[in-house]
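Troubleshooting: if your tokenizer reports a length mismatch, compare your output against this known-good record of 210 residues.
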Amino acid sequence: MSDSLELLARARRTPLVAILRGLLPAEAQAVGEALVESGFRTLEVPLNRPGALECIATLARTLPADAIVGGGTMLAVADVEAVHAAGGRLMVSPNCDVAVIRRAVELGMLCAPGVATPTEAFAALQAGAHALKLFPAEMVGHGGIKALKSVLPAGTDLWPVGGITPESMAPWKKAGATGFGIGSQLFAPGTSAADVLQRGRAYVQAWQQA
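Known-good structure output:
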């Protein structure tokens, strides 16, 4: 099994991606450990905030070996290379850029680019994407994910991102979601590790019961 497929298999065990936008390097380890304790194993630090690469390096170095750490808002090939050099093995983007996906695949990273249309979804899969981030989820909607699921290859991983709450997970899962990316409802600048632990447990429990 290739590195990226092994990462996908690990992510599928609890397919919830913690989106840590605005995480500070000084709090990265504590927040990461709280998420792991809550049951999360996949963590994304978006690159469009200061200190993201340092946070990724800290998380990759300090979290258990089964944790998958990487970057979000990865818009260029240079972003992929920087995250990989920092120890990140997850590539997440808000868009479908074939060059970015292909470079991440070359480096053995788990790739989850953002898509909102069938054209983007098929282009991402052809470039080697392992999961599709449905973004913004509010725009795609339950009807949209059902329509995508009807035409995409069987077994395609579909992870809605945007406004996901513990209460909304079951309807999304029924519509075809196989995982989720969870942002400000889980972590926002100033959120304590204790609050992240509590919120993380609520999401993991909701996923298990959905």
